[in-house]
User: Fold these one by one.
Assistant:
Number 1:
Amino acid sequence: MIPAFRKRGVGSGEYIFPELRCFLGMVVALLFLLRPAVAEEAWQEVKGENFVVFYLEDAVFAQEVLTQAERYYQGIASDLGYSRYDNFWQWENRAKIYIYRNHEEFLKATGKKPWIHGTAFYNKREIVSYKWGQGFLDVLLPHELCHLIFRDFVGFKGEVPLWLDEGVAQWEEAGRRKWAIGTVKTLIEKKAYMPLGELMRIGSDSENDPVLSAKLYSQAATLVGFLMEKYGQSRFVSFCRELRDGKSVDEALAFVYTDSIPDTGSLEEKWLQHYGGA
Ligand SMILES: [Zn+2]
């Protein structure tokens, strides 16, 4: 089960504990104004090649966050075939990571709901959370970084469906693929999966429903995985690029996967065959 909640929006994601799913909000500017509940001068910073980590205590943890962020950045960018962006997040364009001391302080600063444990502002290239150890390093950081890198590439103009945005981040998250594949196989076997046409339209408040969100996240991850593994990374990147440039999902499929997957109907069919063995 994945308790999750997410809204489409212009550029932020939130992490929800314990299963930690994203949330896109429309309140980026407001949240930005809310952030410095701590005096600016209290922040200390540690800088790397692509990131600046701001922290209030525990320089060792901050350094660990920085080290891991740099490592994930290289890995995710190259997995997504965006390696030409390797030198993009540098100097004044470095991504910023803010680490509050505890959950309470994070909530006070961001005005978030109690079940939110981290958030990302895509257009400002910022991740904001607090010091909660391995969960931050192993789950939130790679997931949100993936969103940031993906958003950098696809931008905000094109209509990128929720399943694609979330699917990419999930597929890149260590340990998530196995869960997604297992869940999807069961869904297909029980004929309980969400038809792709429905998945294309999903967004907003649908993730309040844990059953629905388990379908969304597992199907999203395996759709991305299927496209990447079966047809290759470079075609997947082209597909994303076409969406970025304004094509609809069907138009982008027809353009990039012309003979094999010309529309969402055939994508669903091939995906079912791949994971359901039908
Ligand atoms: Zn997410």
Number 2:
Amino acid sequence: MIWRSRLGWMLGCSFLAVAASGCSDAFNAGDLVYIEAPAMTQDLGPTQGNLKDKPRLREKVRAAMKELYGPDPQTIRVPKGMPLSNGGALLASHIEGGKDPGPHPILQVSATPGSAPAPQAGGYAIYRRNCLHCHGVSGAGDGPTAPFMYPTPRDFRPGKFKFTSTPSGRPPHRDDLRRTITYGLDGTSMPAFEPLLTPAEIEEVVDYVMFLSMRGQTELALIDEAATFEEGDAGEALDEETVQSLADSVFKMWRKSQSARLNPKVARTEPTRASILRGRDLFLASDCKDCHGRLAAGDGDSFIDQETFNKIVFGGNPSERARRAEELISRDSKKLWKDDWGNPLRPANLNKPMYKGGRRPIDLYWRIAKGINGAQMPGHYPSPFDDEKTWDIVNFVLALPYEPTLLTDAPQNAPAGTAVADARGR
Ligand code: HEC
Ligand code: HEC
């Protein structure tokens, strides 16, 4: 298994600082990557099966990716129109092509080509030191430590992120990525980098995550397009214009998201008793309880039970979770059990004040208003909840961990004319 040998290398070296001096002897002098560069250009991804028996078409995809994004992780090419800060200049430490690199800058990571020490600056270098061992060379969420985690690190390539402030299903705003990287995702293995990185370094690595994500989305789009051709017609597939237009549509989605934050139009309602109780009634009258459960313990009817879930996640080799799920969950079960990346999933226990996407009222507003992408939780704005109703639920959610009787003492059937009845009526 590939990850074993990679892990062996890493454990043999200093764990995080893979480029530390004691390790470099094991590799070619000046070779700064410990995982071979071609890993970046493999046609992996959810649709890889489409090109399984089509080597010429696979080669076409590879060639197009090389042309657009550069031949290896150290030589980054930023295609025209990619929405990154300073045209992509934060990705690497050294820009080739003079002061004005034009619309297609080629960014060279090593400070002076041919010199040995590790690159110190730029999103690529920061990613490589801090993120790669979990998120992987191409951002596929397949770094050497990834298989041991639950949930596993995000695969950036489908361009889908859970904790966003943009309309449901859209790419994140860069502020969303900055928040995740700065404060981490509570209750998961995703660390907070505030103590480790300067704000400027965080901006650099935000750009690199965006780069990997747009790159991955383009790759998947190219694979899908190539798969519509027969192997014998490979010569006609993926002409320059098609490749550019597929990449452009990815850039367009990201660009749009940068001006499409869903901010509340109404300021937060004060967390008064009345507001908290209205929020509670809305929680009980809406779909929240189907997933989170009547006592919000994360045990609603929609999801598989805790015992089955534990068997899938912890009942053996982590790489066989999907197989265990197949065995344990009957085919006709309508129960939800996994997120879009294939991780087994349960709704949050809202009696615990731990929120992956942040504990500020605005973070919870975004979670409830527009849901959690890829993780089954739907958006609720503008229907069934307008801003005022959403703030009432935020106030309820924030109060619940400190006041469990809010739900244990809640009336089973809400009297007509209350918030519950209103919500049912919609
Ligand atoms: C120890 C492993 C680990 C390291 C190191 C790590 N991550 Fe993560 N990261 C995770 C896990 C696990 C998740 C997914 C959590 C989930 O799905 O709930 C994640 C998720 C993310 C997400 C997705 C957030 C969303 O809204 O979906 C981003 C962005 C991210 N990480 C960026 C980074 C960056 C940038 C670095 C380095 C500066 C980094 N991570 C380092 C484990 C790690
Ligand atoms: C279809 C199922 C579903 C519905 C409906 C649903 N949720 Fe969720 N919710 C989830 C799942 C699953 C998670 C955990 C996602 C994860 O851990 O990645 C979650 C997580 C959360 C979180 C934690 C967010 C964080 O940052 O960790 C909150 C708060 C929350 N839900 C509140 C609500 C409220 C309030 C409602 C009703 C307005 C609601 N949910 C409706 C499935 C659902």
